[in-house]
Write a structure and sequence with these properties.
The protein has about 190 residues and is mostly helical. The chain has one domain. Helix content is about 80%, strand content about 0%. The protein contains four helices and no strands. Helix 1 runs antiparallel to helix 2, helix 2 runs antiparallel to helix 3 and helix 3 packs antiparallel against helix 4. It is elongated, with a radius of gyration of 23 Å. The two termini are about 25 Å apart. About 25% of the residues are buried. Keywords: Membrane, Transmembrane, Transmembrane helix. This is Maternal effect embryo arrest 60.
């Protein structure tokens, strides 16, 4: 009876990991798509700006940083998603192979194959760190996008840029802290 309980608990735990990996993949896909669309936009288009004061116009370094941060963000989201997909596939393969093995050798009192939880947690943590880095680079890219559209942050006559950037710089890191705490909690437990 206890053997049945341990088997059910192990399978339930695997489902939790697969669900967590699905969530990482879904969120990364949405943001990677958004970054990909951002990369299609031309930051040097003079008709696509709201800047009235020529002194507030960003230099080429802001445009270059925008593209760089978008590419870094895209790379981090793809990295995180590929790791999560690979781990999810490995869990499914291990579960299927274990089931076949148990069916064939039931008379020999076989046990369910065990997943190394330390490796599993480290890989999930690596995937979560990739997502976090993607969010940070996406936020930095958005700050540069606001500067391209509304003017540089250092421009004294331009309060619109600060009004757009301040909520972004407050809300995104707050969400990242909450996300990090949940990942750390899941990692520990």
């Amino acid at each position: 009876m206890e053997s049945k309980y341990n088997e059910d608990t192990s399978r339930f735990g695997t489902r939790i990991y697969v669900t967590a990996l699905d969530s990482i993949i879904n969120v990364n896909s949405i943001f990677a798509f958004a970054v990909f669309i951002g990369l299609a936009w031309n930051p040097s288009d003079p008709n696509n700006t709201l800047i009235n004061d020529p002194q507030c116009s960003p230099g080429n370094n802001v445009r270059e940083d925008f593209i760089s941060f978008q590419v870094f963000s895209f790379g981090c989201f793809v990295f995180s998603s590929i790791i999560a997909l690979a781990l999810k596939q490995a869990l499914k393969i291990a579960r299927n192979n274990t089931h076949i093995y148990e069916t064939m050798t039931m008379a020999q009192n076989s046990t369910m194959a065990r997943v190394n939880k330390t490796v599993l947690r480290v890989v999930i943590l690596g995937s979560a760190i990739g997502s976090l880095m993607g969010f940070i680079f996406l936020m930095l890219g958005l700050v540069n996008l606001v500067q391209i559209k509304l003017g540089v942050l250092s421009c004294p006559n331009n309060g619109f840029t600060l009004q757009a950037v301040v909520p972004l710089v407050i809300l995104v890191p707050s969400a990242l802290v909450i996300y990090s705490l949940i990942v750390v909690y899941a990692f520990i437990h």
